Amino acid sequence: MEWPVIVLLIAIVVLLIWLILLAHDMRESLHRIVANTALPRGDDSSHHGLHGLTNYCIWTNHGGSWKLVEQRFEPGYMAGDPPRRAGAYEGETVRKPAVRRF
Predict the structure, then answer these.
(1) What percentage of the chain carries pLDDT values higher than 90?
(2) Residue ranges of the domains in the chain?
């Protein structure tokens, strides 16, 4: 093989490795975002694992609008605005951070 072909093959391998690492990073970030914003459908008792966390509110989509169903925050915090996007389905549940009072 001639040296330009070898250089091109090395460049392609490096690019592929970089793309794989980038895809892995993006996937991890997406999983983190989903885990911090979306909750499974169901009643309020189904939010296992979140009771130790503080400073958040649970919003549920009912009748095309968001209803605040649970508030967990320390003094100095308050419920923020409901989600800006329309609910995807009836009963969709979203966890949003509480906001600091000024």
Answers:
(1) 27
(2) 1-38, 40-102
